[in-house]
Structures are given as C-alpha cells and as structure tokens.
C-alpha cells in the first residue's frame, strides 16, 4: 500500500514511467506509432485491436497496464510529428529479428478483429517491403 502511494506521488513529479520509457526510446515510439497506424488502417478502432495493442505493450515492451492509457495519450499528442516513413526509417538499420517483431506485432493487430481489411493488408505489405522482410517471416511458428 505504501509503495503504491509512493509510486503515485513519484509519478506526479517525474511523469508516468511508461511514458518516460516510450519518450526516451525513439524506436519504441516508432513501433507503437506503427501499431497505432495499423489499428486505424481500416477506419475503425475495435476493442479487440486495442486489447492486442495493450497486450503487446505489456508483454513485449514491459509497459505497465497502469501506464498504457498515458502512453496512448502521449502518442496522440506527439505522434503527429512522425509519419509512417520516418517511423520505418528507424527500423531499417536494426537487426532482422527486431524488424520481424514489428511486422509480427502489426499482423497480430490487423488480425485481432477477425476482419482483415484491404487497407490493413496494403499497410502491412508496404511495411514488409520497407523493412526487407518476407511475409513468411511474419507467421509465428506454433
């Protein structure tokens, strides 16, 4: 209880730790922006896509559940400064596994609502081309 209160007080003075993590890591910011672009690609934001986004934030990037809404707000406020091409450019020099991870996360979000729209397919295909990733690499082994 006391630790939770101390963390809340620290958060007020230091800012949200999840937001700090995202703000301090341009590649992570770029990936989250690309995931958001995938959520918006079909023109609707489904609950299942947001659930997938939240799970990726928590499991893949260690962003606490309590920080995710603040991270989304941060991306909404500052994400307009970065377009998709700029975000992808940050990934070009990264190792192939990290690039595959971005593609897998994007595919996961696109499939989350069980309706793969043509606009989602186009965004994923264009991203794979820019990252020099084969569509085969996006399929996670079962």
TrEMBL record:
Q: Which Gene3D superfamilies does the record cross-reference, listed alphabetically? A: TerB-like
Among InterPro entries, the record links this protein to:
DjlA_N, TerB-like
What positions does the domain Co-chaperone DjlA N-terminal occupy?
33-138
Q: Which domain of life is it from?
A: Bacteria
Checking CDD domains in the record gives: terB_like
What is this protein's name?
Co-chaperone DjlA N-terminal domain-containing protein
